[in-house]
Each structure stands twice: as structure tokens, then as C-alpha cells.
Amino acid sequence: MRYISTRGAAPVLTFEQAMMTGLARDGGLYIPETVPQFTADEIAAFAGLSYAEVALRVLTPFVGDSFQQDELRSLITAAYAGFNHDARAPLVQLAPNHFLLELFHGPTLAFKDFAMQVIGQLMQAALARSGKRITIVGATSGDTGSAAIEAFRGLANVDVFILFPDGRVSDVQRRQMTTPSEANVRAIALAGDFDDCQARLKDMFNDFAFRDAVSLAGVNSINWARVLSQVVYYFTAAVSLGGPMRPVSFTVPTGNFGDIFAGYIARQMGLPIEKLVIATNQNDILHRTLQSGAHTKQGVNPSISPSMDIQVSSNFERLLFDAYGRDPKVVAEQMRALAEEGGFTVGQGALEFLRDGFASGRASEEETLAEIAQTLAETGELICPHTAVAVKVARDYLGTVPMITLATAHPAKFPDAVERATGVRPALPAHMADLFDRPERQTKLPNDLSALEAFITEQLNP
Ligand SMILES: Cc1ncc(COP(=O)(O)O)c(C=O)c1O
Ligand SMILES: N[C@@H](CCOP(=O)(O)O)C(=O)O
């Protein structure tokens, strides 16, 4: 299996190389040259298997020679050992044809654990073989950061720096990043929004002198291995509702477009998915793009679903690559226009491709609060604001095909919003019960590449 860049001017890599490289050296994102296919019988055979075994079958054709089967099996098994639900990703029924896919039973209570725990295992195995040391820099709007810290804290050959937007994550999310005491992990509160964090991260990758000096690695969904690991739960969920003989639809709360892009890959691999619905909060660039064809930034507007407060949606580049018939020149030009002119217009053929593959909707702040209350009243389920955005949008697409809405975080990560909507303050699980008693450690830095690089360099060379 070979990996190519969406911008067409970076070396072609193996799975392991793409995982360790992060952003391609031409600024693009790595993507498999071809997407492996499963037959209906192969998918049907997933029924009754453990989550880890399905993950092994889904990952294997993408991994190629990078990991041997037995090694991959034991790494995946270790990755999911710390989840606190036997099914790992259980389904809960909300209505006759509407299901919630609970993705918050991992150690940091968000769907990020599904991929980050796998990446943690795979990267450690690759580093043990190479004897190298890496510096992971991550950008987070709240959940990627804690999942990355959890997966890599305490490791001798990895340093982790997480950039989060100062004042724009929930208190629980911030404390998950600032309270771990291991010296190899550092949380940086950046004066800016998530788009600034992600832009500075990409700037670091594009500064080859810095990148090479610190052996920079990425664990955002820039990294193909992140997206790949998220493909698995589309299969387990669909199969448990009768797939592939019975099609299903998914509604996905969307920000950086990694999670729903994983659903798009599952569909390409042969999983019958009728609708893939993009659900956005008031930061609705993706919904507006599907409606009008204009992909135009309007500035990030802080919301009660802060992890989705994103306007530069990184993985949309991977979808555009396909929408334009895998023409890297068009992608590179549109990404230049987004960065320098604030947007671009999607060409007619590409727009039809997007509309054939996806539906979309948006939920306002009021609608999100109302949905948290309505879901509790109707079903007894307490949902987080990100999940509520998706449940609200999904309601417009309910039909005869089962709808699976992704529940991406535990409500206790966003207790203020949930309490405001319902009067109920969700409690943190036992392993995090003392989170607010633990001392915090963070560094506040300006939204400035030189300042960030200087801080990281100094921390690595005290
Ligand atoms: C809780 C939660 N829901 C939804 C999303 C959006 O996912 P994605 O960025 O993959 O579109 C995020 C951030 O990634 C998140 O943390
Ligand atoms: N919502 C994310 C933003 C980063 O997304 P990623 O999938 O690219 O890591 C977060 O919680 O940090």
C-alpha cells in the first residue's frame, strides 16, 4: 500500500512512513493511492467478532508490510484494553429508527481515544524498531489534546506539546491537558482560536529546518493513521444493525472533517451507507459549502460545542482531492486561495460530487440546548452538546433506513452546557473524580510561530 499527497509534490510513502511523517512536505495530506475493498461476505463475517478483531481486519489492507499480522493484532488489542465498555462502541436506541453510537468509553471520554490509543501503540512499536526520538506537536479544540497526552505520557522517546485556544475549551477539557504530571507532556494555551493553533502547527511542519531539528510528528487527523482507525466503528455499528445486507445512514458532528471522512472511506471500502450527514454548529462553513458551493471563512464564533469551533476544516482537503478527480494542482490552488484570500468556490462538477456523497445541516446554540433537553425527556439519555448538534440535524433525515448518530463525547466533559439545558450536572467517572483537585501546569504563548518554536526548542534542550 502506497500513500500519496493531496498536493502531488511530496514523496510517495509506506503506511509506517506516512504515520511518522504527519503533514506531507508539500503541505498536503497523505491518502492511500487506492482504497481497499471488502466484499459483502467479508463485511457480513464481522458479525459477532470483537471490536479489536474487526479493527485488525479493517486496518490490515492499509498497513501493508509495515506491521506483521501478529504484531498488529497485539498492538490493537492493547489499544482497546483500557476502554470501560465491553463493546467499546455500543449502540443505544433513541427511537425506532434512530441510534446513538457511543464513542466516549475510552480513557479521555471522547471518540479521539479510538484512534489515538491505536496510534500510540503503533508509533511506540515503530520507534522501538528505529531507535528514534520524536516531538509530537498537536493542535486541539479540546479533545485531541487530552487523548494525545493520555496515549503518550511518560514515554522516554516522545515529547508532546499541545496547542489549545486559551479560554475556548471547557474547564474539564483544559484540566485533562494541564493536570498530567509527566515531564514529557506540555500544554500550551495559545492566544487565538483553534484555526490559529492548527495553522501554526502546519507552519511548523512547513518550516523544514525546525521540523527536521526536532523530528516533528503529528497526531492530529493530518495523520492518516488517525482517520483510518476511525473507519472501524462505522463497520461495527452498521453490521450490528444488519449491514451489509441492510443499508444504514450516519450523522456525524463535524469540525475538522476527520470523523465523517472516515465514514466516507468505509463507504468506499464497500459498506452500504445511504446518507452521510455533516452536522455543524454555528461555525457552519461545511454546511454553507454544500448549500452554495462557496467555501468561505467567516471567523470562528465560540459555541457551547467548542470542539467543533473550526472554520479551516483540515480533512476537507482530502475530500476535495477526490471531488476534483484526484487532481493535486486544483487542490493546491484552492488551499492557497483559502489561506490567502479567505475562501474559494467549488467547481460545479466537484460540488455535484460532494452533494451526491453527503447531506448537511446546522444547529444554532438555542437548538443545541433544546435538543439536549428534548433527548433527555424523550429517551432518558444525557448527551453532550456536540452529540446534540448531530441529533438535531439527524432528525431532518430520519426515514426507513436506520440512522446512526455519533455520540462523540461524554456529557461530563461539558457540564455547564448540559446543566443549563437540563438542570442536571453530569458527574465525571471515578477515574477523573479528583480532576478539579489536581494542580495545573500550562504555558501561555502568543499566536506567533517564532515564539512557539523557540519555546519548544528550549524545552527540548534545557
Ligand atoms: C466531541 C467532538 N465532536 C465532534 C468533533 C468533530 O470531529 P472532526 O473534527 O473529526 O470533524 C470533535 C473534534 O474533532 C469533537 O471533539
Ligand atoms: N475537535 C478536535 C480538533 C482537532 O481535530 P483532529 O481530528 O484533527 O485532531 C479536537 O478536539 O481537538
Give keywords.
EC 4.2.3.1; Thr_synthase-like; threonine synthase activity; 462 residues; binds pyridoxal-5'-phosphate; Rossmann fold; globular; pyridoxal phosphate; 6-stranded mixed beta sheet; Threonine_Synthase; alpha/beta
List the helices and strands and how they pair.
Blueprint: E1 3-5, H1 15-21, E2 30-32, H2 40-44, H3 51-63, H4 69-80, E3 91-95, E4 98-102, H5 112-130, E5 134-139, H6 143-152, E6 158-165, H7 171-178, E7 185-190, H8 194-206, H9 208-214, E8 216-217, H10 224-240, E9 248-253, H11 258-268, E10 273-280, H12 285-292, E11 294-296, H13 316-323, H14 328-341, E12 343-345, H15 348-357, E13 359-362, H16 365-379, H17 385-395, E14 403-407, H18 415-422, E15 443-445, H19 449-460
Parallel strand pairs: 4-14, 5-6, 5-8, 6-7, 7-15, 9-10, 9-14, 10-13
Antiparallel strand pairs: 1-2, 3-4, 11-12
The site of pyridoxal-5'-phosphate has 17 residues, from α11.
